[in-house]
Structure formats: structure tokens, C-alpha cells
Amino acid sequence: MFIAFRQNNQREGVMKFTRSQFSKTFGISMESLRYLEKNGSIQIARNQENQYIEYTEEQIPIILSIKKFQQAKIPLEEILPLTGQQVPDHIAFLDHCIGELKQQKEQIEASLGYLQFIQSVYQEEIQKVNQLQLKWEGECFYLRFDPKGRNNVLIREAMQYLPHVDLMTILDLDQLDEEQPKVQLGLNLPLYIDSCKPLIQAVEHSNQLHKTADGTYLYKVIFKTNILKIRRSDIQNMLDYAAQHHFTLQQEIFGFVMGPEIRNQEKGYYIRLYCLIQKDAE
């Protein structure tokens, strides 16, 4: 297929180009030429013998002007709505670009405002983490936390300071009846934050009450095994103990302690699970 155009000083004849030659002469891709032909941005006609497509010289400025925009990395589909069949209106196009940039600026400012808000929340949470009381009890740390999930992020942040615990997994009580994976203590510590208890299969434990400075009590369970398994019955045992001894379970606060223990000159580990309870009014 041949393409041609007229030169100002060659009105008598027609200079003929193949599409490939025309593309190379004016530095515009053949794909762009086909696109411009198809959508009518440049007017083409066949010669009388129907042997080639003819580009009139009136179309050349349009192509060259479009090429300038392409060199600025502006896609054809953004240029063409402003061109029609005329030489592109540069002022109109620049106004259009400025409008687009203003819209992008507004979107960026909105996103920036949101990110700054998230940053302030995160900074506030970090301050709360720094305020968490990590108390040293003998050879272990003690941490109180909220079972309702409000402090999950803070707990995760604080967990890194607890010895022998690399990862905390928060599970749902509804999953208690399902088989739970067995994990090595020190690698993964399943905790059920909206109740009270990691539980363990075939475990020795002792229950104690510790009175706190504010008059509440801590119900303590000491686990002495390194394989954890959660059982609903262990939670029920704690609730039964509280009821039998006229204590009210305060489900807003739970805590645990984990640390090393030496027995028979061998070093092992233990977990103490705390549940804050109050003595019923008599």
C-alpha cells in the first residue's frame, strides 16, 4: 500500500510513499499512522487508480503536531479528543493537562492527609506500647492484656520483649473444639485473648490466687510442658473455680508470664496464665 503527500512547490505531481517510508520520514510509528487513519484524525484518500493511499499536505502539520505530544510521552488517546481534524490546539491541550494535574494533586493531598492520620495513630499506639508495664518477676516478664482484642497490636509489639516467645497467634474460641496444631514452646504460643487460657494436654498444673495492690486477685495456672493444646474444659475449670470460691471473673484483663525454670539441675520453661477475678460482695 502506498502513501503520498503534496509538497508546496510540487503542485503538479504527487510524491509517493509507502506507509513504512512515510513513517520513517516523519518519525511517527506505523501503528500510530494506522490509528490516526482509522479514527479519522487524518484525512486520507486513494488515488484514481486505487493503488495507494494519499496523504494531503494539509494533514502533515497535524501529524507533526501530534508527534510533538507523543515525544512528551502523552498517549494518543489523550491527544486525539482535542485535535479532531485540525491542528491540535496547544493551549486547550495544556489547559486540559493542567486540569488533570490539579485533580491528581487533590487526590494526592487527600491520600497524604489519610497517611498522616494513620501515622499519628501509629505514633500514638507506639507511645502506648512504650507505656506498657513489663514487670520483672524473678526470671520472667509479666504482662497484662485485654482479651477483647482492643490491644492486639500493642500485645504483638510487647511480645517481642518476652523471653522465649517468637510469635503469638490469636485464635477464636469457636475453634477450640477443632484440632489444634501442636507447637514447640518458644516457637509459637497460641493464646485465646477473648477468654482465659492456653491449655495443654496431660499437663501438671497448680492453681493459686494472688492478691493485687488494688484488691483484685490473680488466678494462676502453671503449665509444665512444652507442647501446647487448647481444651475448652480448662477454661470451664477456671470459671468453676471462681464460682465455687465466690469470685467474679473480670474478663477485661488477662495476662501471662513465661520464663525459664530449673528442676533437678535441668533448665526448662513454664507459662503462668493469669485471670483477674474479684471476691464477690458478701
UniProtKB/TrEMBL annotation:
Pfam families: MerR_1. InterPro entries: DNA-bd_dom_put_sf, MerR-type_HTH_dom, MerR_fam. Residues 18-79 form the HTH merR-type domain. It comes from the Bacteria. Keywords: DNA-binding, Repressor, Transcription, Transcription regulation. GO terms for molecular function: DNA binding; DNA-binding transcription factor activity. This is MerR family transcriptional regulator.
